[in-house]
Amino acid sequence: MTRLLHPALVIARRDFTATVYSKTFIFFLLGPLFPLLLGGLFGGIGAQVASRTDQPIIAVAASEADYARIAAARGELAGALGKANLIQLRRVPVEADPAAQARRLLAGSTPVAAVLSGGLTAPRLSGALTADGRELAQVKLILAAARAPATPAPRVSLTAAKRSPARLAQNRALTGQVGQMILFFLSILLSGMLLSQLIEEKSNKIIEVIAAAVPIDALFLGKLFAMLAASLLGILVWFGAGALLIGALASGGLGMLPPPAVGWPAFLVLAVAYFAMNYLLLGGLFLTIGAQAATPREVQILSMPVTFAQVLVFGFASTSVGAPDANLGLAAAIFPWSSPMAMLARAAELPALWPHLAALAWQALWVALILNIGARLFRKLVLKSGPPTRWWRRRVSS
What is the pTM of this model? Predict the structure, then answer.
């Protein structure tokens, strides 16, 4: 063990210093800012487009008195259901020929889905609507509320409960889902860099010198832990800035987030541990794959299937949210590359801590296995210095 740890620490300190003290590390720290800005920008644009297209406009040809009652009824429903879920109303003056007016409004440049005429006494709706559509159902509710006599709403006594089992389970599932998404985002952002970790040494022809000085297992282990340390430093900066921003902008601060089942202190410790394990599992695999590449172009070719595989693993791990003890949830917790994300969701939903100790030990075993296989493949395929071919392979080749 000492034969591996000491050279691995030397390699890790060398790579960590070269990464953190480089000028490009500042761009590395600014990396998550760009997808967040783009996501916020396009999310806002998408919300505006959705608000324009998802809320059909109903032109109401009615007197001012009738339209005031219709608009008031819609306002009451919007207060209960939300404005985004209701149709929009627009008053137009009443004309002598309602049918001709409806045809002209529907054929005009104004995006009108239907025309409501006849006022409250004999309402008539014209437009491209279906008999069982939600727009027609909303118009009926609005007209029924507008035609009903004005009566005060009944007083309902409310006994507020701080927690309910259904809401608590829902909140914990949400916490697990958000934790999985953050873990996936950080992993896909950071672990891909390990594909090109050995390109420089191989291109400069100094990999043989390093391999003669330290064991290949120590080289893989050192590079993996160096990038893990640099990633954790970046995460510390990102989460510190995010916590300050949430505390400054959100009214409830960090306390407004749904609490996980194991509690926030244990959940945060497990989140760091599972990120480390997820990074080591993916990083060991990517380091093994990237070690076979000889040029940056080959690394770029490998990056697309690697990213696609990460998305599939994330989708598999997401099946455990809301049902951690189901067959798929247990399978996701056992499968090594989805285990960290599945177990993080489990920590948000179930209070038991002993499964996490078993899961971390299971994941550490797979990290050691992957690094050992990667080092053997690197010796055999790249350095051409592996053990001799076995007797059964010799017999097959002869």
Answer: 0.71
